[in-house]
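Here we describe the complex-level prediction in full. Unlike the single-chain runs in Section 2.1, the two entities below were treated as one system.
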Amino acid sequence: AQKITQTQPGMFVQEKEAVTLDCTYDTSDQSYGLFWYKQPSSGEMIFLIYQGSYDEQNATEGRYSLNFQKARKSANLVISASQLGDSAMYFCAMRETLNDYKLSFGAGTTVTVRA
Amino acid sequence: DAGVTQSPTHLIKTRGQQVTLRCSPKSGHDTVSWYQQALGQGPQFIFQYYEEEERQRGNFPDRFSGHQFPNYSSELNVNALLLGDSALYLCASSLDFGTGLDYGYTFGSGTRLTVV
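The structure predicted for the assembly as a whole is:
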């Protein structure tokens, strides 16, 4: 079964507008971590934001915020005030438990920012 | 501060051949993980090395093997290459955490392997 589902293959957003990228996850663990990464055409995975399963507040990092809805197993990324440099592939990922060292990634969403 | 360095950046191999990819972790990091990313897909975990041992392995055949050296750098070896092994291979380093889930993985830019 897919642990991370990203249903939006591609999205277009106008410069300076906000965009929401959807992510749902599947786990039976109570303790887990959720990550968002950005992958530009260069290939490098760039860490954006982290949300722990026990964190009561939604994580924020500059223009990035995570809309965490635990009961719905949803961890959507919001990018505010989009910039041309935000055009890239975005991946949602999860790590389950302290004894599991791997990140499980979704299929990704391509974001294209229009001027 | 140098990040994760991978070499080579691109590689073309023939079916049946063997390939070795290399990774130097970020300064101060002691753990190295390898991921395979097929075109249009998310990365898939291959394995992680810590203290020169394979600590965890994903769902990959034994054709995929690795090594970690005393300086924490790592190699990924793939034997008997198949066309389906064509992918971007990403290396990620981290500092062994022990207590928290929010450890920082630093990824390299990857090696793009094409098998013909």
